[in-house]
Structures are given as structure tokens and as C-alpha cells.
Design brief:
Strands 3, 4, 5, 6, 7, 8, 9, 10 and 11 form a nine-stranded mixed beta sheet that branches. Strands 1-2 form a two-stranded antiparallel sheet. It folds into two domains: 189 residues, 3-Layer(aba) Sandwich (D-Maltodextrin-Binding Protein, domain 2); 213 residues, Periplasmic binding protein-like II (D-Maltodextrin-Binding Protein, domain 2), CATH 3.40.190. The chain is α/β, with parallel strands linked by helices. It is globular and about 65 Å long. Helix 1 links the parallel strand 4 and strand 5. Helix content is 44%, strand content 14%. Helix 7 packs across helix 8, helix 7 packs across helix 16 and helix 16 runs antiparallel to helix 17.
Amino acid sequence: MTELLNFTTGTRAIGCVSAIAIICATAANAAELNLMMSNVDAKTTVLAEFAERYKATNPDVEITLNLVGYNVIREQLPVQLEAGTGPDLAFVTNLGGLNSYYVDLTPYVDAADWEAAYGAVLPWYRAGAPDGIFGYHSEMTVTGPYVNLTMFEEAEVEVPAPGATWEDWADATQQVMDATGSYAGMVMDRSGHRFAGPAMSYGAKYFDADGNFVVDDGFREFAGLMMEWHGSGLMPADIWPAVSGSKYANGNEMFFNQDVAFYMSGSWNTANVQQNVGDKFDFAVVPVPCGPAGCGIMPGGQGLVAFKSGDAEKEEAAAKFVDWMAADEQAREWAARTFAIPANSRLQAEGLDYVGAGASEAIANGLNAFTAMAAAAAKQTPQAYLMQGNANNSLFFNSTIKYLGSALNGELTLEEALEKIEADVTAK
């Protein structure tokens, strides 16, 4: 049972449906579009407002928001698309990997304007194609940590300064853990994407000179640190070791409940953190810890794409909605209200009023900190941007989760896990 929001009457009703529908008087020949998005944060409410607004000026388009868990988008959406049963639109994070299913927006948009605004990220959607416009990068993201300042204060432990290493943070959070009796000290989302930035800090290149994926000494060194921290209890057994296969898991609840003082997540989580932490404790986004090869992050984010359906009318309607969302006016409001870093270069230069959109000073400062991290990483670890644009990056990310998770729960040795990661990626 899910809640059906009637935007015409403002009333609420309970119905046996799997989506939030934009219900308005609809012309008989309306293009009915299904838009899939993750229901894990507050963005769904904002998008429902946007869809209602678009409907008001485009009454011949009916948009249904199909809200699903993030794992559905990661694992089931590719299967649906291959079977021809996928949605018309979706917010996706596997940007290049689904490229063959995207509608090329070029015939429906001002291509020169799109290149001017989004030129830096358009290649991520092309998956090797030389041109074409395949998606609106609705949220530029950067991986990085959230820190519970109240726990550090109660423990009388100084927060490590910018430039501190992962080992420095491990020492500091161990002290906080010991002083406060917290369940663990640090937690990281169970994600190969989240692991990649720290691994790059220790020299992981992810590609050899010929562009092939590799598991190298830098990857091995940070994987060893993960083993050490889980073995000591500094990192909890509830996330990486406890979940099977290549399933994603996040550490949100552990951070919200003050079970840990340090949470490696990313900029996309800012609105969710603010909403759930409230006034329970003080927190901040801090510069990402460093290693001998720099201070690695993974850029990324999500984008709104239209999928091929074989129905020219629906494809055109979907493409035009994507174009409308990407326009400066909507993109500015979307980024400000969802506390996201815009990918639109004009909006990056202009800056956004996050506080005016409801963000706390901590969130606004955090988003600025994330932006600074992205700029630094582009110089220190350029392989991060190469990795993000590779159509096969999910193979490496998923293998990392699967086999490193097996090592962390004792099913494999670390060396066995690393061998399986490399063999798995090479075979595929």
C-alpha cells in the first residue's frame, strides 16, 4: 500500500499502487510517462512539485513518479531495460553503463547551450560515443565524510586538521570510541564507489597504461586498512561484512543514532543528514582524509535520462521534460532545494543560496567543502574522473563490494579477495 497524492484537490487517499501519480484532467491523447527514482531522501517531494508545475503548462503530458529503493535502480533497472519493460525516464547513477538505452536529446534541445552549461559531464553519458546529448546531470556529487562534532567535544579529542591521513582519523575516532563508549568509530557506505576515493589516496590507479582495469598496490593497501579497522571493531560488522554479494548498504542510521563519530558518504546525503540529525548533535563536513598519493574522492552523481521505447511521441515528450528540468531556472531551484552541487557551469560560477532554500549553515558550508574537494581531486587523482566516465565502472565497483565483503566476514583471505576482484573484472 502506498500513498496517492492528488495534486488537483490536495487530498490524500490510500490506494494499492506502486507510484505517486500526478493526477489531473488529462487529454485523451496525453503522453503517459513513467519516471523512476529512488525514494531514499527528500528529493521525491521536490520532484513531485516540479512534475505538477510542468503538467500545468503541458497538459498533454502525464507523469507518474515510480518511487523505488536504490537497489532497484542499481540491480533491476538494467534487467527491465533489456527486457523492454523499463520506465520512460529515470534518475540513474550508472551514467555510461546504460547508454545504449538512452534517447539522444540532441534533436529536441539547444545543443550549443547544453554544451556550454554541461560540457564537462556530458561525456559521462556518452560511454565512448563521440557526441550526442544523453542526459541532464541533475546532481554533481563528491564523496566525503560527515563528523559528529559533539562526540569529539564530549571525548575531548581534537578533530584532525585538513590534510590529516586516514590513519590519523582512525586514531582520533578510536579515542572518541573509547571515551564515549560508542558502538564503532568510523563507518563507510558498502559501495565500491565510496571505497575508490580512499584507495586512490593510497595510489590505486584502477587502469593500466592500456586502459585495462587493474588491482594494484594502492588498492591492496587501503583494502588492508579496511581489514584492520573491521578486525579491531573500529569499523562495524553491520555494513560491509554483514550484507551479501554486491548489495549496497549505507551507514546513515549509525551516524544519525550516534553509533559512530565519522561517516564516509557524500554530498548527495546533505539534505538527508540535516533532516535526520536536526538538533540532536552538531556535525560538519570535513575535508576528506588523505594518503601518500593525495586526498582522493570520487566525483559522480545522478542524472535524469529518457529511455528508448519505440514510441516516437513518448520519447519526444520524455526528452522535452528532461530539457525543461535542465534549464537554468529549474536546475538552480532543484540544486538549491535538494542541497546539491550543480553540474551546470553557469550555476557553479553564480553560486547558490542554500541557506535561503532552507539549509543550515553547516550544510551550506559542507557543500562548499565538497566543491573544494572536487577541484583538488581533479588535479591529484584524475583517474577518479576517468573511472566515473567508464561504461564498465560498475563491474569493478560491484566486484569490490562482493569479494572485499567476503574477506571482511572471514569467507576469504584478503589476497584471495583481490585475486577474485581482478579475475572477475577481467573476465567480464
